[in-house]
Design goal:
The termini are far apart. The protein contains 32 helices and 14 strands. It folds into 4 domains: 207 residues, Tetratricopeptide repeat domain (Serine Threonine Protein Phosphatase 5, Tetratricopeptide repeat), CATH 1.25.40; 70 residues, Serine Threonine Protein Phosphatase 5, Tetratricopeptide repeat (Alpha Horseshoe), CATH 1.25.40; 142 residues, 3-Layer(aba) Sandwich (Rossmann fold), CATH 3.40.50; 176 residues, Glycogen Phosphorylase B (Rossmann fold). The protein has 735 residues and is α/β, with parallel strands linked by helices.
């Protein structure tokens, strides 16, 4: 064949290949280009074209192969390098993809696609700060790139820089008004800013543009969950799962919603499906095990706890801190869990300028922050404290980010403060700004890592000095919480290493209301289905505090005390069923367990009069329930552990002058319970002692407690005013 004829043949093949490519027949076009390549195997343009066609057909390995062949011939092709990077992105080989994009940019610094794709790779590697820089470079070169603004907002959202993310996503929408992905991300950002109604509007817009948009359905369900519209939330989450049966995150949030609805069996099934799909999902293992504890399902709990603890030891974000407090008494694991959680949920980035001490105020400004300013154990304990603060020396502020329940306690609290701010609809940043506007000197977090907490307020810094008290019984593991209130029983000096905070040691830890409303109803045992002549052990702690080991002890105690029953509180039918099953497995009749229903607080307090002895739980002790029982003259028997939550009841008993009811081993706990039940005179002596001590007990002396905590506030305030760092504070009983 002559050279001219060969050229004509190549031209015909090329024209056919181009025509096929332009008409969308990519596979046929590829076949034609391959014919050409046999004739000119060193043609980099042909290799690049074959590579691009393969990428368009989602044949990323084949595309990469063609492109890399081209680079072997000429390694200095920016576009080919960047396309290799794109192929590697799709193959999830991110580090190598990054190297290709960097090489492309070294050759052509103004290459927009390379900057953009580099940002996507860094985002996939969770290197969000670096990703931001790449998207900023993209926007600098092409200011109308809606995709760059969209992905920039994702990186900012992952960095918890929600206000900046909001600006970026709104710019994307301005450039591309029908951008469904942008509306979805807009909604998730607004959700993170606690602007739930506005978030729903954005997610509805995304779904109007794309009715089968899985992520928008999922996020809409999540927002509805946060609005406590649980049934509506399930509709959207189930729609997302129908469209993607392998959506692990949807099964996880579905489990949480079902848990709120007390559909625990369904919740556990949903968590199980999530674990099958993604066993290393953040928080999933801890949430599932905690749910099992709520229903007293202890099957394989020991093994599951070992697995969970191992994950945490390996720096995995496997559980929320609150769950671990109930699952183990190991304070080192508690601190580790908290530190992992704060790093994952509250990363180090500055939202506001550093806060500096304010000039000395005539009255120290104390801000109390809580989601529980309502009928809630935290409010029952603290209400009188707020009323008793010395208004000549302290100005008291409330920042309430929970629902306004309009109940009796809420109304009482609204009049207990000098200033009461309902901030539930404000973002964390705006709440912190409000606190700064009012120049709060000391911020007191009453929630810690409990439900509806807003820890980010303290990460941003609401006040120059910040401390944790009463709601969360453990360390926050965070550099932004300066102090933790305790006493020497709860945190002995040699346990300080388990806490990131400096400890404020009060003479007695728990605050109380000195004069609660107690029903005048005189209950009989018959009112609660209790046998008239039996010895009544009781425990009204939450079900998740009941561990297999504690229940083993209770069973052995019941076996050794004839004609005795255990009076418990079960907040769900499944827990009651499981406890009856567990008592049968231990060789006792289910009739040895009696379950009390939820009562209003005045009646609940009066109910304690029908019991003989309160049996505490380990590792999570009785807190409010313990001081309630003691107030009603009912002795509390505890086994003291090593963690904060496992030493609270011991603190209460010391405060009422009954240290003889503190044990330190399961065997001694059981032995004492049996001895007291079988020797009524010994128990009666303790009851008489308790009744004698109650009028003068520091546990219920709200004025004395207020004096002690104010002494602590004054000390830490003066340290801060004098430029001294936080340090352990010991408040003298005479303070």
């Amino acid at each position: 064949m002559t050279s001219k004829t060969a050229q004509q043949k190549q031209q015909l093949i090329l024209q056919k290949a181009i025509a096929l490519q332009e008409s969308g027949h990519l596979a046929e076009a590829t076949h034609s280009y391959k014919k050409l390549l046999k004739l000119t195997p060193k043609d980099t343009q042909l290799l690049n074209t074959l590579g691009m066609l393969a990428l368009q057909l989602d044949n990323f390995k084949e595309g990469l192969n063609w492109l890399e062949q081209s680079l072997k011939i000429n390694p200095n092709q920016p576009h080919t390098l960047s396309n290799c990077g794109y192929a590697l992105q799709e193959l999830k080989r991110y580090e190598k993809a990054l190297a290709y994009h960097d090489h492309a940019l070294a050759l052509k610094p103004e290459y927009i696609d390379a900057h953009y794709n580099r940002g996507l790779v860094l985002q996939a590697l969770k290197r969000y700060e670096e990703a931001l820089l790449s998207f900023d470079n993209t926007i600098a070169l092409y200011p109308n790139d809606a995709d760059a603004y969209y992905n920039r907002s994702i990186s900012l959202k992952e960095l918890k820089r929600y206000d900046e993310a909001l600006i970026s996503i709104e710019q994307a929408i301005d450039l591309q008004p029908n951008y469904a992905d942008a509306y979805c991300n807009h909604g998730t950002i607004l959700k993170s800013l606690n602007q739930y109604d506005e978030a729903l509007i954005c997610l509805d817009k995304a779904l109007s543009l794309k009715s089968d948009y899985i992520e928008a359905l999922f996020n809409r369900g999540t927002v509805l969950y946060l609005l406590k519209r649980y049934e509506d939330a399930l509709i959207n989450i189930n729609q997302a799962i129908t469209l993607n049966p392998n959506y692990a995150e949807a099964y996880f949030i579905k489990g949480i919603v079902l848990q709120e609805l007390k559909h625990f069996s369904e919740a556990l099934r949903s968590y199980d499906l999530a674990i099958i799909l993604n066993p290393d999902m953040d928080l999933l293992q801890g949430q599932r095990l905690f749910t099992k504890m709520q229903v007293c399902d202890w099957n394989k709990n020991s093994m599951l706890l070992t697995q969970l603890t191992k994950k945490i030891a390996n720096h995995q974000h496997a559980s929320e801190p609150f769950a671990m407090i109930a699952l183990t008494e190991n304070p080192a694991i508690h601190r580790k869990t908290a530190e992992i959680h704060v790093k994952a949920e509250y990363p180090s980035n500055c939202f506001l300028p550093n806060i500096t001490p304010y000039p000395k105020h005539p009255r120290i400004r104390i801000g109390y922050f809580s989601a529980d300013f309502r009928n809630h154990p935290v409010a029952y304990l603290t209400a009188e404290l707020f009323e008793l603060h010395d208004r000549n020396k302290y100005e008291i502020y409330a920042f309430s980010f929970g629902l306004d329940t309009k109940d009796v306690m809420r109304k009482r609290l609204e009049t207990s403060f000098d200033h009461f701010f309902d901030v539930q609809h404000l973002s964390d940043k705006d709440i912190a700004l409000l606190a700064r506007e009012h120049k709060i000197d000391i911020a007191v977090d009453l929630g810690g890592y409990t439900q509806y907490c807003r820890t980010n307020i303290f990460k941003i810094r609401a006040a120059p000095v910040q401390l944790s008290y009463i709601g969360f019984l453990g360390t926050m593991g965070a550099e932004f919480i300066d102090y933790l209130i305790a006493d020497s029983t709860i945190i002995p000096d040699d346990y300080q290493k388990y806490y990131s905070e400096k400890i404020i040691y009060l003479p007695s830890y728990q605050v109380n209301d000195s004069n609660p409303h107690i029903s005048e109803e005189i209950y009989t045992r018959q009112d609660f289905g209790l046998p008239e002549t039996a010895f009544i052990f009781c425990c009204f702690n939450n079900n998740y505090k009941m561990t297999p080991n504690t229940f083993d002890s209770w069973s052995r105690i019941l076996k050794q005390v004839n004609n005795s029953v255990l009076f418990l509180y079960a907040d769900n039918v499944l827990a009651e069923t499981n406890l009856k099953k567990e008592i049968s497995l231990r060789g006792l009749s289910p009739n040895r367990l009696v379950f009390g229903k939820h009562l209003l607080r005045p009646e609940y307090l009066a109910r304690y009069r029908v019991a003989n002895l309160f049996l505490d739980t380990l590792p999570y002790n009785a807190g409010t329930t313990g001081s309630d029982a003691l107030r009603m003259g009912l002795p509390v028997l505890t086994c003291m552990g090593t963690s904060f939550a496992s030493r609270v009841a011991a603190s209460l008993l010391k405060a009422v002058g009954l240290p003889e009811l503190i044990t330190s081993t399961q065997a001694s706990y059981e032995e004492l319970a049996i001895d007291l039940a079988n020797h009524p005179d010994k128990l009666n002596t303790l009851k008489i002692k308790l009744q004698h001590n109650l009028p003068t007990s520091p546990l219920y002396d709200s004025r004395l407690f207020t004096k002690h905590i104010e002494s602590a506030y004054l000390t830490i305030y003066e340290r801060q005013q004098n430029g001294l760092p936080p340090d352990h504070i010991y408040v003298d009983n005479k303070a």
